[in-house]
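Re: weekly structure request thread

Next one in the queue (481 aa):
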Amino acid sequence: MAQANSVKNCLLSVEQMYEADRRTIASGTTGLALMEAAGSAITREILKKWSPRKTVILCGPGNNGGDGFVVARLLHQKGWNVRVLLLGTRDKLTGDARTNAERWPFDVQPLCPQNLTNAQLIVDAIFGAGLARDIDGIVAETLCAARNLDVPIVAVDTPSGIDGNTGEIRGTAIPADLTVTFARPKTGHLLLPARQYCGDLIVADIGIRDETLTEIAPNAFKNDPAHLFPWPKQDTHKFMRGHGVIIGGKKMTGATRLAATCARRIGLGLVTISAHATAYMIYRQAEPGNIVSDSSLSDHLADPRKNVFLVGPGLGLGEKQADIVQELLNSDKKLVLDADALTLMADSGTVPRPYETLLTPHEGEFSRLFPTLKGSKLHRARQAAIQTGYVVLLKGPDTVIASPCGKAVINTTGTAWLATAGSGDSLAGFCLGLMGQGLSAFDAGCLAAWLHGKCAETFGPGLISEDIANVLPQVIQSLQK
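Done, posted below.
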């Protein structure tokens, strides 16, 4: 899990950000200096993006509002026309927020919809990532009025109403054109629906050292796994690149074929499709690079050269299929379990196993397999991994890959065009191919999800599942640049 140790890609919880602030202040940097650095960073980004215009700063009663007062002062010093709307009154502010409110030499107006008049840019500094309650009342009314003005909106830390840990909307929130956060993104920035509300996300350096973040030991990361790609060496031959087995279904044969093609495209040396009865001839007449075998599952499992198995795509449901899944779970092989295999496991349960195991559910499959797990996507994936001892890749636009040790990554690549039949089968094939070449289940899941998304981004509109394997060589080639 090399990438998960990189503080460069770490994501912070709200509590970890508070701890980073506390440790930085304890080391000699004042809270006032941190607030000035935050406000300066926001101001720089505004000046880069927009020319002077009538700007309204919405300030809350805490440190987020204090950041807003710094922005107001600095923009005013640059000649901008600035007004401040405050939730509450100046005399109720405390600490560094009060100091910066006192540095603002002009009156403030009450935060309400009517005082947004003539605004050409709005800075949302009401509540940041640490919001602990739903937004309602005058704040909700003001945010709705701001959205209706159709002017650029800049969010301080997070758009007000976004839960910085879960990415959920607390009551209401409005999309920002630009969000400026500090030190590192929060987990909520990368999770849906919040990711759709942040606009351009800028992470500003305000003087919190990498060493401080390392001491906090974050266990969530942005997915950045390109360095994990298993480049073949000059003297490599196919038997050194792994031999995967896919359990071929009888009806949904296309799912198995898509997975097999993607496994080979990503570098797996050999792929065997285990098929019987009428399906055997269907697979035999398909892609010539696939090996098709009607040997028993026990024979495949006894072959030491076959080092990783995929079960689920197109498998079907029934007693015979359930027995196949259980036999694989009881084996000593590396496994990727997807689609129907997950549904079957929801009835029979998981089996503790010390071998590399990767589950790749979508939300429906996950809820059937782990019906009692609640909370954010990150929390649920992490708890499922800890509970089972398996790596869990919970699919979606904000795919989360979680390890039994508690570490997790959030993937950010991909487009809505991946919402097409067979896309998940292709991803499972990527996972099979990477695990067969020696990557751990966690690293394989991280790299597979990232490449899967990159394929969609590279192909563009009109993507169907058959295109994923075809565009993969172009994506892999780009990694060498």
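The longest helix spans residues 31-49. The two ends are 23 Å apart (CA to CA).
Next request, please.
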